[in-house]
Each structure stands twice: as C-alpha cells, then as structure tokens.
Amino acid sequence: MFVEEQNINSVIRNRYLFIFDIFIIVLAFFATGLLVQDVYQVVHNMLHNFVGIIVTAVVYVSALYISGAYNTLWIHAGVKDYIKLSEACLIAGSISIVADRWVLHEFYFKYLVCTAGIASIGIVVIRMSVRVLNEIYRNRVTSTGDKTTVLIVGAGAAASIVIKDIANNRNLNYDIVGFVDDDPTKKNIQFNGVKVLGDRFDIPKLCRQYAVDEILIAMPSAPQAVWREIVEIASKTKCKIKTLPSVDQMIDEDNLSSKIRNVQIEDLLARDTIELDNSGIGAFITGKVVLVTGGGGSIGSELCRQIMKYSPQTLVVLDIYENSAYELQMELNRQYPDNKPEVIIASVRDMDRLESVFEKYRPYIVFHAAAHKHVPLMEVSPGEAVKNNIFGTLNVAKCADKFGVKRFVMISTDKAVNPTNVMGATKRFCEMIVQCMQQDSQTEFVAVRFGNVLGSNGSVIPLFKRQIEAGGPVTVTDKRITRYFMTIPEACQLVLQAASYAKGGEVFVLDMGEPVKIYDLAKNLIRLSGYRPDIDIEIVEVGLRPGEKLYEELLMDEEGLKETAHRKIFIGKPAEVDRQQIQEKLEILRAAVETGNPETVKQAMEQVVDTYKRKD
To answer: Is residue 573 among the annotated active site residues?
Structure first.
C-alpha cells in the first residue's frame, strides 16, 4: 500500500512538472521577444509561429522523458541527477534550434539560442525549487520541537553522508553548528552549507560558544590513536559523544539514524584493523569439520562466528550451558541456513560423552575454549577449576589424539604466566599438558595465550556499567592495577591466524598492545556515561581480591619470543615437559580434588606448577 501511494504521488508530481515544463518553454519565447519588441508584437509573433513553439515543447518533453527526468524524485535528487538533466536540456536545446530555424524562417538564430537557454535554465531551476521548497517545509515541521545542536568531527565522506541524511530524515532532529577538522586547508570552507570552524583542539571552546548538545565523530577510517585522542578531548566537555561506523557499513543501511551510536569504552580500547591471511586460514578450515568446546561462551561463540565465515563442512558447538548454546545456534542458523552448525550439550569432564561426540563427527580441528575463568570464584572452589580446566582439557586432548584430529588449539590466558591464582595455575598446567601431548601424538597440539577481552562474561566493564547506572560508587581494587585488553573479535581472529601457523608444540602469544590502568578505564567510562569522575560518580578502592595481582604478564621468564608472519602473533617456546612427571602431577591433583578440601587443592597446585605463587 505504501509503495503504491509513493508511485501515485510521484506520478502526480511529475504531471505537474510536465505542465511546468511546457509553461516555461512558452515563457522562454515570450521573455526573449520582450528583449527586442513590445508586448503586443511578441504575442502576435508567438501566435503566428505557434507551430515552432509546439515543436520546441515536443523536443524538450521527449528529451526529458527519455533521460528519465519524469521518473526522478526531485526532492531527493543529487548532483548526478542534475548533470543528467542538464545534458538532456542541452541536447533538446540544440535540436530545437535546428528545428525552429527550419520551421520559423523569420526568427533570428540568436533569438532561438536565447530561447533555448532560458527554457533550459528554467527547467533546471524549477526542479531545484522542488527540493528547496521541500526543505523549507521539512524545517518548519521539525522546528516545532527542540533541535539537538551537533558539532561534527571530521569533514570527509562520512560527514557528507551524515548531512544528507539529516536533511532527509525527520527522525534526526539535528541542528549542525559546524565541523572541526585537522586539515588546515579546510578551515572556514563550507561543506553542504556547514562551515569548518576549527581543529580538534577547538572542540571545548566551540561547544561552549555554540551550546553544543552532541559531538558526532564522523571519522570511521581514522587511526585508533587519533580517534582516542579526539574522544579524550571531547570527553572534557559536557556533551554527549556519538560515533559512526565505516562508510561502507553506512551505505548498506537504509537509515543512518540506526547506525549513529554512543561512543563506548570498547571504542577507546579497540586497535587498528587486523590484517589477516584469509587464504591461509581458509586453507585449514574450509570444507573441514571443526569442533569448538565452550562454544556458547564469549570467546567460544565469537570463534564460531569467525569460523563460519570460512565455510567449514560442519561446525560442532559443544557446551554444557544450553541457553547460550541455543542462542548461538539460532543466530548462526539465520545467517547460514545452508550450513547450520551442530550443537551438542556435553561437559568436557565426561570422557564417555566426549568420545561419542568425537567418534560421530571426527573433527579435523578442535578449538578448546571451555574453562572456568573467574579468578575470585576459582579461589573459593579450586577443586572445580582443577576438574574442569585441567582434567577437562586432558579429556579433550586425549580424544583429539585417539580420533586423529589434525590440530588441537587450546585457549590460554596471560594469567598463566607466573600465576598468583588457582585459575591461572590451572591454565599453565593445561599448557604443559598440550606440550606433553605433542611429544607422542600425530595431532598438532598448540596453545594461544592472550589477556582480557572486552565484554566477556565476568569482565570488569559490565560491572562498571552496572555500578554507574546505579549511581555509583565504581569500585576498583587498586589504582595502580593494569590489565591488557583486546576486543573479542580481534582476539578470535588472531587465534584463527595463529592456528593456521601451528606446527605443533607452540605457545602462541598475542600482541595485546599497551597495558591499561583499570582506574583510568573507570574514569573514561564514567565520562562517556555523561558524568564527572569523583564528583557525580565516586571511584572507591576496595583492595586486591584473592589471587589477584597488580600487573599481568604475557611471557614467562624462561621463554624466548619468536616472530611469526603476523606482526601481532609471537611464539614462546618453553622448556621441554617430561611426560612421566606430568602423569605423576596429575595423580597428585586427582588425589587432592578427591579430598574436597580447597586448601589441599591449592597446596597441590603449588606442588605441580613451579611458577605458581599464592597470594592469599
């Protein structure tokens, strides 16, 4: 119904334009005649040479019809539409001059040229007027409510799209006060009627001067370092800070308003786009059966999303928690209806269940992401960490060996380096298991180690957001504490890339960039939420939690660091692990877990992981 109404309205508008075009052509003859004759003589000559006027009208209307001028919605017309219209008018004018010269013998050539020029200009102007009148009407409609004053950062392609969409979208009740751009050649230049007022350092001054409500960062292709600096400057104002995605993403969307969003802390911590060797990743995933344990978790689910892009033969998602696994299944079923994943509810602790899964699906690659990762909770229940992380990893590794898996990739953590908590110690022991299994197996066993990921289950950022929403205080354990951060998609992309390099026995270490102070993270998040740190929202130190340390490390002291073909992926090569010792240590852990005593389990962990130093 809506489409039919649009078509009807379009026909009505084009019918009016058709009438206006004929009127303009007649008016062009009249106006040209007035240049050299009085009104009476002009009217007399026009009536006498009516056939010539009809010829001109037919030529123009035919040319405009062929060019599509009567099928164009001129209220949304762009430069290309006007160029096409001008070309049609130029052709029509040339043809009409020749035709009229032949029909109207007594009309001078200059007269005909002038008439064609006035007619062409009038036809173009009338269509521009349609858009101008529409803009005036829209402004009157939207001006009934309060407009949001906006300062746009970046006078480039993205900003151009923003301005056009604001002009055409009633949902965006914005009043753009100007641009800021660091290019000095753009200063005081106008883009679509909006002036470049200064550079990024002028943002606070301009926000005060023009009473800006929102700052819109329209620089999707800017380096992350530049982007973060702009956000830091903008956060010193009281304005809301919003941003845009990349230009190609905006083109894919019908409504730009759905893509403008608040700046998030993840944006500040995100890094430049990762360049991947997609052919190398595809070579070992495409057409293969891939199993992901812990596939419903934050890391596991993103791994599944990334893997599906490379068209595996079958993706097997294994998880003990059915809700998250089901949600992922529905998501991937919608995106890949012709290659739906297999979702298996199972525990990595259940060896019999794992063997049945491996026997049925015979995976070529296994990504082992299933683990208990919450540091304080594992300090309280260390036996569960040992059973799930260590013996669960052992079970999956044994199945990989038994059923001829080509490559086994374990997801490790920076907390495995010189661990001070049970969770980190269990992950370090898992790395030892992986390297031990490599010694006698045809399967290529590797581990990939990285730090915290943004938005993962148990991450500090969701906690801070909840505390801010509640009005504070925001709690940090220690102002000095630092952590490495990486977005989940970035981490998973690098995991896949590292896995494609594996030959067996490696511990891959991802470049996590510079460590981030959690205290600074809290302050930035408070600012981005529209509050002032320690004024509107208090930040309180609560002391280190059990097992927590001030600084995380990515590489053990005894490990060397070797580069790979990717600048963000390195290989650490620990000392050889003795298989007999691993077996003996596993028995120590098994016996400790059976006691059910947390202290006994922790003492056993100290015994089997030399680098584990408890912090109780």
So the answer is: no
